[in-house]
Design goal:
It is a single chain. The chain is α+β, with helices and mostly antiparallel strands and about 400 residues long. It has one domain (about 20-390): Cytochrome P450 (Cytochrome p450, Orthogonal Bundle). It contains 14 helices and ten strands. The chain has helices spanning about 20-25, 45-55, 90-100, 105-130, 135-140, 140-150, 160-170, 175-200, 205-210, 215-245, 250-255, 260-270, 305-310, 345-360, and strands at about 30-35, 40-45, 60, 135, 280-285, 290, 295, 300-305, 365, 390. Helix 4 (about 105-130) packs parallel to helix 14 (about 345-360) and helix 6 (about 140-150) runs antiparallel to helix 10 (about 215-245). The chain starts with 18 loop residues before the first helix and ends with a strand. It comes from Saccharopolyspora spinosa. InterPro entries: Cyt_P450, Cyt_P450_B, Cyt_P450_CS, Cyt_P450_sf.
Length: about 400
């Protein structure tokens, strides 16, 4: 395909895969595209190939010549290569070994009750506020922030400040703005680490500070990475999940009638398109063959989980939102060695939200037409700007 295929794709409906992405998928597995900043990349769109490549160690996040690497955007956080090419795999293994214990089944079971209580409190506030309301501001935004603050040991009263820094760091259009946000976020992390070394608590930052061999900078960097990933993406998923259920009232009623479907509802929500227009970025660590195309060392490869999650070869009627769907697992959290370490926590939050929201507000509905619901196009994670509802 020609590099005239330009990202991001035009996605008119936030709940549907972009039409051009669907068209590309129908013509083959791999396609040459042009990123939002004009750089050459390969996009992979088939479920089986994306799943296989997510676990392929010949693809990574680092680059042998980072200054000349293709970029997906201007974000200093994820717009280009990350890590050292020679030590990336060892560094990644170390990071996971440090973080994995905090997302173990035992820790997550202990946290579930607290997440459910926080959700109930927010829904009480929503009921007291009355309709109409913005479900994004009332629930989707505060819950993940509350949860990640408790897990990490970050003061909730700092939420406006660190939220502004994470949003800046995720800016895909303004590199200087993104770099400043990332610098501010890291400096905030260093401040928290200094506090925890003086007054440790029962939280992730304190644990990192007390781990042999973990420097202040490493503790700050890991903590702030968790702060970003631990709330930004879940904010998006809660908002889109609520919108999906409200836009498909028969599915809302099905969940109301059969609460046991909440697990399947969450997985179907997670399968929904994110609308990022690209996918998971990787760089080829060596020359390799993908779908009959030679990809050279250093080439940018975009693994489109949006396309993979809507591949007819893996999902029957992939455009249909069905909370009782069975079959293949979505690839939203990745696959293989880089599978998202925070996936269990995200599932707990989404299950808490939709197991309580639907029975608490059985008559909830959109307060505006679906085509008036807007999404953010300027940040890495995207998501709704607001979600007006009534009941």
């Amino acid at each position: 395909m020609s590099t005239r295929i330009q990202l991001p794709f035009d996605q008119r409906n936030p709940l549907e895969i972009a039409p051009l992405l669907r068209e590309l998928q129908s013509t083959g597995t791999i396609h040459e595209v042009c990123t939002a900043v004009g750089h050459r990349a390969w996009m992979v769109t088939g479920y089986a190939e994306v799943r296989r490549l997510l676990g392929d160690e010949r693809l990574g996040r680092s680059h042998p010549d980072p200054e000349n690497a293709s970029r997906t955007g201007e974000s200093a956080l994820f717009g280009g290569p990350m890590g050292d090419f020679d030590t990336e795999q060892a560094e990644h293994a170390r990071m996971r070994s440090l973080l994995q214990p905090h997302f173990s089944p035992r820790r997550m079971r202990a946290l579930r009750t607290r997440v459910e209580a926080l959700t109930a409190e927010l829904l009480d506030d929503l009921a007291a506020q009355g309709a109409p309301a913005d479900l994004h501001a009332a629930l989707a935004l505060p819950l993940p922030i509350l949860v990640i603050c408790e897990l990490l040991g970050v003061p909730y009263e700092d939420r406006d400040a660190f939220r502004s820094w994470t949003q800046a760091a995720a800016d895909i259009r303004d590199r200087k703005h993104s770099e400043q946000g990332l610098a501010d976020l890291f400096e905030y992390g260093r401040t928290l680490v200094a506090r925890k070394r003086q007054n440790p608590g029962d939280d992730v930052i304190s644990w990192l500070c007390g781990t042999a061999g973990v420097t202040d900078d490493e503790a700050a960097g890991l903590s702030m990475a968790l702060l970003f990933a631990g709330h930004e993406t879940t904010v998006v998923q809660i908002g889109l999940g609520a919108l999906l259920l409200l836009a498909n009232p028969e599915q809302w009623l099905a969940l109301l009638d059969e609460p046991g479907l909440v697990g399947g509802a969450v997985e179907e929500i997670l399968r929904a398109p994110r609308g990022d227009g690209g996918g998971i970025p990787r760089y080829a660590r060596t020359d390799m063959d993908i779908g009959g195309t030679t990809v050279h060392k250093g080439d940018l490869v975009l693994l489109s989980n949006d396309a993979a999650n809507h591949d007819e070869a893996a999902f029957a009627e992939p455009e249909r939102f069905d909370i009782a769907r069975a079959g293949a697992s979505h690839l939203t959290f990745g696959h293989g060695p880089r599978y998202c370490v925070g996936a269990p926590l995200a599932r707990i939050e989404l299950q808490a939200v939709f197991s309580q929201l639907v029975p608490r507000f059985p008559t909830m509905r959109l307060a505006v037409p679906l085509d008036e619901v807007t999404v953010r196009r300027d940040t890495l994670t995207g998501g709704l700007t607001e979600l007006p509802v009534t009941w």
